[in-house]
């Protein structure tokens, strides 16, 4: 019975990932970000890898499970929002998305509001959209608790 449930869960996971890849470039980016902020185990690393291609995928694949857990599961980050600012079609198989990602990071007594502006290159590969590259454009950090001097 457990193996049947596990098999069904894997099939549903693959189907969901495939639906995202067949969708729009913005949907692929949104799904990647949602998975990364809500990662609960190493299985999410595999889901994230499925949404990537090229050097970006190779870098994540090369991470050990411990590195992934430290960066995505143990990290004290709380997703706040994602806004697509600009979508530019480079050609039929490549789209450039400029987006703004906001989240809170850090322990409760030292929480910071982070806002990052990024540029993602998303390419169509074998009929599916995948994230090829992400570059940071700008980052702002606002500390939510007042800093005090000794």
Give a quick rundown of the structure.
With 150 residues, the chain is α+β, with helices and mostly antiparallel strands.
What class do helices, strands and sheet pairing give? alpha+beta
* Helical coverage, percent range: 25-40%
CATH architecture: Roll
Quick one: biggest sheet?
A: 4 strands, antiparallel
- Helix-strand pattern: HHHHHEEEE
Contiguous uncertain segments of 5+ residues: 2-11, 13-18
Tally of individual domains: 1
Query: Helix count, per DSSP?
Result: 5
Shape: globular
Read across the widest sheet, the strand sequence of neighbours is 1-2-3-4
Describe this structure in words.
There is one protein chain. By secondary structure, the protein is of the alpha+beta class. The chain has a single domain (2-143), classed as Nuclear Transport Factor 2, Chain: A. It has five helices and four strands; from the N terminus they run αααααββββ. It has helices at residues 2-21, 25-37, 43-50, 54-62, 65-73; strands at residues 77-91, 94-105, 112-125, 128-143. The chain has a four-stranded antiparallel β-sheet. A hairpin with a 6-residue loop joins strand 2 and strand 3.
């Amino acid at each position: 019975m457990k193996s049947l449930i596990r098999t069904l869960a894997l099939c549903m996971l693959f189907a969901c990932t495939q639906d995202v890849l067949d969708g729009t470039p913005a949907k692929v980016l949104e799904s990647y970000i949602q998975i990364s902020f809500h990662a609960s185990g190493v299985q999410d690393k595999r889901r994230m890898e499925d949404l990537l291609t090229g050097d970006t995928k190779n870098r994540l694949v090369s991470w050990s499970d411990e590195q992934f857990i430290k960066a995505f599961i143990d990290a004290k980050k709380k997703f706040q929002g994602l806004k697509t600012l600009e979508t530019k079609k480079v050609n039929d198989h490549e789209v450039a998305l400029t987006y703004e990602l906001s989240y809170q990071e850090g322990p409760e007594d030292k929480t910071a509001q982070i806002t990052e502006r990024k540029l993602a290159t998303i390419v169509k590969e074998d009929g599916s959209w995948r994230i090829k590259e992400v570059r940071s454009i700008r980052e702002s950090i606002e500390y939510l608790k007042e800093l005090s001097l000794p």
